[in-house]
Design brief:
The protein is built from 16 helices and 15 strands. The mean pLDDT is 85. A hairpin with a 4-residue loop joins β1 and β2. The chain has two domains: 15-210, Aldehyde ferredoxin oxidoreductase, N-terminal domain (Aldehyde Ferredoxin Oxidoreductase,  A, domain 1, 4-Layer Sandwich), CATH 3.60.9; 237-428, Aldehyde Ferredoxin Oxidoreductase Protein, subunit A, domain 2. The longest helix is centred in the middle third of the chain and has 15 residues, at 222-236. Helices cover 35% and strands 18% of the residues. It is globular, with a radius of gyration of 22 Å. The protein is an alpha+beta fold.
Length: 428
């Protein structure tokens, strides 16, 4: 892909892995330092690769489309909060543009320690597979037994299979079935909110990295980097240590009360006053549930966390989450749910099935239509879409993930349009 012209002393391993799933071929390629300087960071390099190699007539699910995973020059260094990667590909909502998704945790750090700055995925496999990268080598393995598993189940089974401290990025059933808005999950608690469906079209279930002797990330000026990192950490992180997606810091009435400056996205923005009831639920989570912050590599903020739910119908269940109020709004407050434990459970459910929390906006749109009498049970396959009915929302998402079943259940849709939708499904 690129020819080395000179050397960069720090920040990059200097090598990228190209994976051709059609041919089952793996190839190491050297990154050109001139490109790394001109297109700074993971997103810049990924965009350069897509621009050079994907022609304008290619569609997201075509074998010729690429999915590029790329890290940046700070990934794996002493820079705080720098264990990040970008996944870059054609946007299945708007096929003529590319969109980035970003993930945290440990996966990016371990990819780089395994000897690669990034990965280029091309082609399509004839069967489900996963990629295993370790000690500067890579191999394609069968993933038939993993197909259909949720993101957390997949991660557990891959780690059990490979052993050691293996980090896994994976898609869920939504990505497998090419549902637009599907995500890539890594380290259970992190999400790159793009490209899950594109990986599903290539039948690539997961990418496992690590598990061996790690490669040291080069740093050109080590002592200077340490000093800058120390200042960075002290100025920007000291007041936000281990906040567990803001639950331990922001879950208070001054942030979510009646005098709060925040506007909550609840009930599809049809009932602003309801936001106060939702806010009370959020600040009650800390009191009733056991929250364990789990920081990313070399980061003290601790956005991700495990939580043993202490209230409601899911009491006693442990969920693995990250992020702040926008996730809880997306598939909880937005459909009228205020019970604290249920809010956490719904967020975990969406992560496991492999969908972005913004799926809640689509579901809330349907809920509002039902509340206003524009939809009936005939349209919803018998589901009662009343605000706060989380069980109906879960069933809707399950139908969406199955896709074909949802189309056939929309009895109010004209037959001609049903045939068109089924035909489009069969194409993908």
């Amino acid at each position: 892909m690129m020819a080395r012209s000179d050397v960069i002393n720090g920040g990059y391993i200097g090598k990228i892995l190209r994976v051709d799933l059609t041919k089952g071929k793996l190839q190491d390629e050297i990154l050109d330092p001139d490109v790394l300087r001109k297109y700074v960071g993971g997103l810049g390099v990924a965009a350069k690769i897509m621009y050079d190699e994907v022609s304008p007539n290619i569609m997201p699910y075509d074998a010729e489309n690429l999915v590029v995973f790329m890290t940046g020059p700070l990934t794996g260094t002493v820079a705080p909060g720098s264990s990040r990667y970008v996944v870059y590909t054609l946007n299945s909502f708007n096929p003529k543009v590319c969109s980035p998704g970003f993930g945290g945790g440990y996966w990016a750090f371990e990819l780089k320690r395994s000897g690669y700055d990034g990965i280029i995925i091309q082609g399509k496999s004839s069967k489900p597979v996963f990629l295993w990268i370790h000690n500067g080598t890579a191999e394609i393995r069968d993933a038939s037994a993993l197909w259909g598993k949720d993101t957390h189940e997949t991660e557990d089974q891959v780690q059990e299979l490979l052993g050691g401290k293996v980090r896994v990025a994976t898609i869920g059933p939504a990505g497998e079935n090419l549902v637009r808005g599907s995500i890539i999950s890594n380290d259970k608690r992190h999400v790159a909110a793009k490209a899950g469906d594109v990986l599903g079209s290539k039948r690539l279930k997961a990418i496992a990295v690590g598990g061996g002797k790690g490669k040291r990330i080069p740093v050109a000026h080590k002592e200077q980097a340490k000093q800058i990192a120390k200042l960075w950490r002290g100025n920007g992180f000291s007041k936000r240590r281990y906040n567990a997606g803001n639950l331990l810091n922001w879950g208070k009435p001054e942030y979510f009360g009646k005098v709060s400056p925040w506007l909550f996205w609840v009930k599809n923005l049809s009932d602003p006053e309801f936001g106060y009831e939702y806010g009370k639920a959020i600040w009650g989570i800390e009191e009733n549930s056991k929250i364990t912050p789990l920081p990313c590599y070399n980061c003290d903020i601790g956005c991700c966390y495990d939580c043993e739910i202490g209230t409601g119908p899911y009491k006693g269940k442990t969920v693995d989450l990250t992020g702040g109020a926008e996730n809880y709004e997306g598939f909880a407050g937005n459909i009228g749910v205020t019970e604290p434990g249920t809010i956490l459970y719904l967020t975990d459910f969406i992560d496991r099935i492999g969908l972005d929390a913004r799926m809640g906006q689509a579901v809330a749109f349907v809920y509002e239509g039902y509340e206003r009498g524009l939809l009936t049970r005939e349209h919803t396959d018998g589901l009662e879409l009343k605000w706060g009915n989380e069980n109906a929302a879960i069933e809707i998402v399950k139908k969406i993930v199955k896709r074909r079943e949802l189309v056939l259940s929309l009895k109010g849709v004209p037959k001609r349009q049903q045939k068109f939708l089924v035909r489009e499904q069969e194409k993908t």
